[in-house]
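If you are new to this repository, start here. Below is one unmodified record pulled from the training split, so you can see the exact layout before writing a loader.
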Amino acid sequence: MPPRSSPTARQARLGAELRKLREASGLTAREAGELLGGNQAQISHIESGRWGVSAERVRRLAAFYSAGDQQLIDALCEIAEDRTKGWWEEYRGILPPSFLNVAELEYHAAYLRSLQTLTVPGIFQTEDYSRKLFEEVIPPLPRSEVDARVEHRARRRVIFERDQPTPFEAIIHEAALRMHYGGRKVARSQLDYLLEVTEWPSVTVRVVPFTSERFIGSSQSVLYAGGPVPQLDTVLLDSAYGSAFLDAHAQLDKYRAVYSALEEVPLSTDKTRTMIRKIIKDL
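And here is the target side for that same chain:
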């Protein structure tokens, strides 16, 4: 079987974690390849996510690396055995891979935390609101891709329709709620929908008001996805120039610290609803 040309972020993450275990053991890719009856190239393909690997081989490699974290190894085996073809695969070749990776990340997350300064979290955007944002992309996108992006963004909400919906905490700066993307009618409709979202059982929305004297820690859009074990948490940074997935221990610790420092900054959920209603009334 030829190597994958474009491994998903989840496939690449499995390979990256196996590489971390190997490097921590002090073993070379050539030595690991010999264990599997192959060579250095085989391990390189596995560690880049370009080749799949079975749970049995994950356990063999982990033992060879003297890796003792059984919970992490079990979680890696689950990823290795997962052959899920999610709904997002329908958009492969239509949308950039980062869109598919975000949907896959959210689908598998144990919990999600979002930090937004200038827009409502994508997963909670109305069709008109998200369409306006995509229409403003530079250079302009073809109408068909705008339509696909809007549809894809709405379908991500499937994680809240499961028997056990994914816990999601959104921290949004008041600035995002005051923006009139698409005009007052679009903005009002978006805030009405966000107000509805605040009542969803697995969702918590809290607003950082303009009156806050604390810096909220990031001017970028941040999505923190909890993994099956903390070592497999992922941070997604989103900007006008693209998305970046972070998973290094130091990076994860940094954003855990950011969220911890933010704990007391946003308004309570009740005060957040009151503020959203007031902004709607002011429109």
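Two things worth knowing about this chain: Residues 168 and 203 are 5 Å apart (CA to CA). The chain has two domains: 9-81, 91-282.
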